[in-house]
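Hi all, long-time lurker, first post. I run a small reading group and we've been trying to get comfortable going from sequence to structure in the token notation. Rather than ask abstract questions, I figured I'd post a concrete chain and ask someone more experienced to write out its structure so we can walk through it together at our next meeting. Sequence below, copied exactly:
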Amino acid sequence: MKRKFLKSKKQVVAFIDSQNLNLGTQRMGWKVDWKKFRAFLKDKYKVDSAYLFIGYLTENESMYEYLHDLGFKIVLKPTLTGTKDDLNGNEPKSFVKGNVDTEIVLMAIKEIKNYSKAIIVSADGDFYSLIEYLVSRNKLLNIMSPNWQYSTLLKDFKEYIIDLSKYKKELSYHGKK
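-- Answer (accepted) --
Happy to help. Here is the structure in token form:
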């Protein structure tokens, strides 16, 4: 039996590059409050399904559960860990890489008949072809960039871009004092 991706063709779906969103806001000095962000997507943009693509690390399982409980549909990607030599002769730096771009593109295309509009949450120019395709099919609602520094490859789609830093006040995580 084939699994149904979405229930209705009239749905708005968000495809979220979690690392791009997380690092993009942190670069500007703030952190996303995931609970507020999910409510923002639902209330302001009528997002029915919000797919959060994220690299899998065993130690983050409670975070994945928390995000799922907030209403995100979690799509986990295996990660690559290692060290990278520093070109300046400093100590090698460790890294964790969970590239989700391919998974986002594949899911958005594979399921295009099952949603009416899509929101891509990323400032990454690697999504140029996907965005171009969605526009040609009248399926793109918006591109949400974590800040004003989105890829120059996306400048052709400027009218679709929403700079999330403009919503910093309502989307920021403040933590406990």
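A couple of things your group might point at:
The mean pLDDT is 87.
Helices lie at 18-26, 34-45, 61-69, 101-110, 128-136, 168-171.
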